[in-house]
Write a structure and sequence with these properties.
Structural class of chain B: alpha/beta
Number of strands of chain B: 21
Largest sheet of chain A: 8 strands, mixed
Strand order of the largest sheet of chain A: 2-1-3-4-8-7-10-9
Distance between the termini of chain A: 62 Å
Oligomer: heterodimer
CATH architecture of the largest domain in chain B: 3-Layer(aba) Sandwich
Number of domains of chain B: 3
CATH superfamily of chain A: Thiamin diphosphate (ThDP)-binding fold, Pyr/PP domains
Largest sheet of chain B: 8 strands, mixed
CATH class of chain A: Alpha Beta
Number of helices of chain B: 20
Helix content of chain A: 25-40%
Radius of gyration of chain B: 26 Å
Order of helices and strands of chain A: HEEHEHHEEEHEHEHEHEH
CATH topology of chain A: Rossmann fold
Shape of chain B: globular
Helix content of chain B: 25-40%
Number of domains of chain A: 1
Number of helices of chain A: 9
Chain lengths: 299, 581
């Protein structure tokens, strides 16, 4: 995509700080798990943008995919189930020099954590959220997730799911996310572009990665997706057109679009929070020394 | 010693709180010690609300018992509060609204009819100024100079100018002069003395103390009675460089605060019991990830929604046990605004030094009521050191390194060479989880024990870093009170009253509720002639804690869970029962 040659947001030319790489912890995912593609895409995207690993914080919740921060050499916060986004927001507001990513699964983000997903998007916090969406609860060995399709028989729904699946892309458009994309673990190169552009995007960037669970989801498999996905970039989609984005976001069946659905530029929360105009909070002075006049209001 | 109490009552929307606050602030301007109780309900209009402004030439610690002047804006106020008027007292009311026949008045109590509506109509056809007229009359009877009350009134309008300010000044002046012509100043009126005192709520003191401690980030969700912490800090956000975030819920609030703390700033959240219940899981995460965190729980009557505008001390068990598993924590309990300021300095210091959650227990009575603070009780000249304390030293950086104190070097994101993972799963010294392929394997079984021991070692550090409960009052004494939080205020006033009755008493006050300073507590209790636990809950939660931790038994308990604060005289009554066996 054209944007990958845009100016870097964190210019570090000439510095000797280490770039992002793998940590010495080996991923514990099942062989063939879609999440391997996502961790590779994040690593390559950050490397492409030349952001030093010490400036990157990856925040996650709980689930197979939420183990991701352990596998990279950046700062990481592996918190509790469904709460990656408010932790990530707090980190961003404490130090907006940092590049903040949140990662996790569909249960973490669209089930227990969906309230935070909605509100983080409407705030347009300048961060990137990558979900590894496998439409199943894997770590608890195979229960229905918020994105499991109607009729999907799982351990918790032996006669099939009888709820409509949540559409993360449509929800993101409705809540005001300013960068909305979908990747597929069967196409890492494409996902690297999507994630790199998401990190460079000024505002809340959401990438829903279709990341098949090879152990517990026997319906939405790599093959199932390969037969259905097509790239928006190759089909005349205009990502600046919200109406077109809505039509594509609702498309799920014989054809499933991947790529950039929508992108727009709006002031971020950090732009609008006046206190942050003086620089990252962590580097501002603190305390009330010399402000004794503050007590006058209590007289 | 002399003291006077003024009570004003009416319906929500009558402006009772502003009358009470103006009177309280006027007393503070006169250099008097004071307490302002704002009793209200969970309604915006109607119902019954009242305010008691107490002032004295010596330190007072509660709203007191009786009132000397009652300003009744409706008939209901007369019915409810007439029994509380002391002999020689005055009822201020408007005969155009309702009658107060002399036959109803207790012996020695006078009625002062004031045409508040008629005075109000001179300025504007609406009745909004009646409370200013009534307040003026009340101020005269209470012995407050007109210039003082009018100056406070003017300043309370802030930058507002024009008719509304002039009208209020005019109406209060007419009310004052009417009283001057038709009544005399109450015998209990106190002469001005000393420099003006600060007057603040517990919530304001908590906000101020946090800011002085170096707070840079507050995330909170509105919930009575903690909301005032957020609104005070929000009003000063830009001036003080503190980000104030109203979160979507308490789950988000506490996680944002944890994120901000991990990110490199001093952060906190505040709530009441309902919101605190939602924060429980995150509290354990802060303990496990060893992130400094300050949480204020301003308690109100529970369980569940309970009595949202009424006080209680029912959350102690919750604060002690919040979170699955075990992790170190401290619970601090200030008893008044002046102490609350210093408690917040302490809370941030402890959280930062011991990298663990510190809970500050407030309650509605402390959070929302006004109390005077001597100007020299509070200093904003507090050193706030940098949080960037760790540098790469050529060795592998281990965020959760085993240490004797249990505290490991804390690097902050953005620092080169010190990258690490903060993990809510059990982890090794570098933060990598030992919960999956390593769990149950002998080497890592022992690592788990070592890591748990490392964290829990902080408890003995916290014990050393917190103040042991102290005894205050008479020695020797006939009775030793045991109390924590805002209840301490009424106990202190009760001790003064007992002293006047020739019954010396003292108080074991639990400024640090947890960790429990067992040795000092056992020492104090075993040397007491008699004890009386005074606590605002049903089951005596503090007594349970002390018995569990020290074996100390407190057989006499004055427990209250009706939503109302403790009154000094009822404590005196219970104490006399215990003393007289």
């Amino acid at each position: 995509m054209a944007e990958s040659s845009a100016p870097l947001r964190v210019p570090v030319e000439g510095t000797a700080l280490p770039m992002l790489g793998k940590s010495d912890v080996k991923p514990t995912w099942c062989p063939g798990c879609g999440d391997f593609s996502v961790v590779a895409a994040i690593e390559m995207a950050v490397k492409r943008l030349k952001i030093p690993s010490s400036n990157v914080v990856i925040v996650s919740g709980i689930g197979c995919s939420s183990n991701l921060p352990h596998f990279l050499s950046s700062y990481g916060f592996h918190g509790i189930h469904g709460r990656s986004l408010p932790v990530a927001e707090g980190i961003r507001w404490a130090n907006h020099d940092l590049t903040v990513l949140a990662t996790g699964g569909d249960g973490d983000g669209f089930g227990i954590g969906v309230g935070h997903f909605v509100h983080t998007m409407r705030r347009n916090v300048d961060m990137t959220y990558v979900t590894m969406d496998n439409q199943i609860y894997g770590l608890t060995t195979g229960q229905a997730s918020p994105t499991s399709m109607m009729g999907h028989k799982t351990k918790s729904t032996p006669t099939g799911v009888i709820e409509n699946p949540l559409d993360p892309l449509a929800l993101a458009l409705a809540c005001g996310a300013t960068y909305v994309a979908r990747g597929f673990s069967g196409d890492v190169k494409h996902m690297v572009d999507l994630v790199a552009n998401a990190i460079q995007h000024k505002g809340f960037a959401f990438v829903d990665a279709l990341s098949p669970c090879v152990t517990y989801n026997k319906i939405n498999t790599f093959d199932w997706f390969r037969q259905r996905v097509y790239k928006l970039e190759a089909s005349g989609h205009d990502p600046t057109d919200l109406t077109q984005a809505w039509v594509r976001a609702l498309e799920w069946g014989d054809k499933i679009p991947i790529g950039l659905f929508y992108k727009t530029d709006k002031p971020t929360y950090e732009d609008l929070e006046e206190v942050l105009a003086a620089g990252p909070l962590a580097k501002q002075p603190a305390g009330l020394k010399g402000r004794e006049s503050l007590l006058d209001e209590f007289l | 010693m002399s003291e006077i109490s003024v009570r004003a009552g009416g319906a929500a929307g009558d402006g009772i709180a502003s009358v009470g606050e103006t009177l309280s602030r006027s007393f503070a301007r006169m250099g008097l010690h004071g307490f302002g109780l704002n009793a209200y309900q969970s309604v915006i209009r109607g119902g019954h609300v009242w305010f008691q402004a107490r002032a004295s030439d010596r330190k007072v610690h509660s709203q007191g018992d009786a009132c000397d002047v009652l300003y009744a804006m409706d008939r209901q106020t007369v019915d409810i509060h007439l029994p509380s008027i002391s002999p020689g007292g005055t009822v201020v009311y408007d005969p155009e609204k309702f009658a107060v026949p002399d036959s109803e008045l207790p012996a020695g109590v006078r009625a002062l009819p004031v045409p508040t509506l008629a005075i109000a109509r001179k300025f504007t056809p609406q009745s909004i100024l009646q409370n200013a007229a009534g307040m003026g009359a009340t101020a005269f009877v209470a012995g407050i100079p007109l210039a003082t009350v009018q100056q406070v009134l003017t300043e309370s309008f802030g930058r507002k100018k024009g008719d509304i300010v002039d009208w209020n000044i005019g109406a209060s002046g007419e009310g004052y002069r009417h009283a001057e012509q038709h009544a005399s100043v109450n015998d209990h009126a106190v002469k001005p003395g000393g420099p003006p005192k600060l007057l603040m709520t517990g919530n304001q003191a908590i906000g101020l103390g946090a800011a002085a401690a170096g707070l840079k980030f507050l995330a909170q969700y509105p919930m009575t009675p903690a909301t005032g912490i957020m609104t005070w800090l929000a009003a000063h956000s830009r001036e003080l460089g503190i980000v104030v975030k109203q979160a979507e819920d308490e789950l988000a609030a506490v996680h944002m605060a944890i994120g901000a703390s991990f990110g490199g700033v001093r952060a906190m959240t505040a709530t009441s019991g309902g919101g605190f219940s939602l924060m429980v899981e995150a509290l354990g995460m802060a303990g496990m990830c060893e992130v400094p965190l300050v949480v204020v729980d301003s308690q109100r009557s529970g369980p569940s929604t309970g009595l949202p505008t009424k006080t209680e001390q029912g959350d102690l068990n919750l604060m002690l046990g919040a979170g699955q598993g075990e992790f170190p924590r401290a619970i601090l309990a200030p008893s008044n605004p002046g102490e609350a300021f210093h408690t917040m300095l302490k809370a941030f210091q402890l959280a930062e030094d011991w990298q663990t959650p510190v809970l500050v227990a407030s309650d509605l009575h402390l959070s929302e009521n006004l109390m005077t603070v001597d100007r020299d009780e509070i200093s904003l000249d507090v050193e706030v050191p940098s949080l960037y304390t760790v540098e790469p030293n050529g060795h592998e950086y281990r965020r959760y390194q085993y240490t004797d104190s249990g505290v490991s070097p804390r690097a902050l994101p953005g620092q080169p060479g010190l990258m690490h993972i903060a993990g809510s799963d059990e982890h090794d010294e570098r933060g990598h989880l030992i919960s999956d392929t390593r769990s149950g394997v002998p080497l890592w079984v022992s690592e788990r024990t070592k890591m748990m021991n490392k964290r829990m070692r902080k408890l003995s550090g916290l014990l050393g870093a917190t103040s042991a409960p102290g005894l205050e009052g008479a020695s020797p004494s006939e009775i030793t009170f045991v109390a924590w939080g805002s209840t301490v205020g009424a106990v202190r006033d009760a001790m003064a009253l007992l002293g006047e009755r020739g019954v010396p008493s003292n108080l074991l006050r639990m400024e640090t509720v947890y960790p429990v300073h067992g040795a000092e507590i056992v020492d104090a209790i075993s040397n007491a002639k008699r004890t009386l636990l005074v606590e605002g809950n049903f089951s005596g939660q503090l007594a349970h804690l002390l018995r569990a931790e020290t074996g100390v038994v407190l057989p006499h308990r004055f427990l209250k869970y009706d939503g109302e604060p403790f009154y000094p005289m009822e404590i005196v009554g219970k104490a006399m029962e215990v003393v007289n066996g």
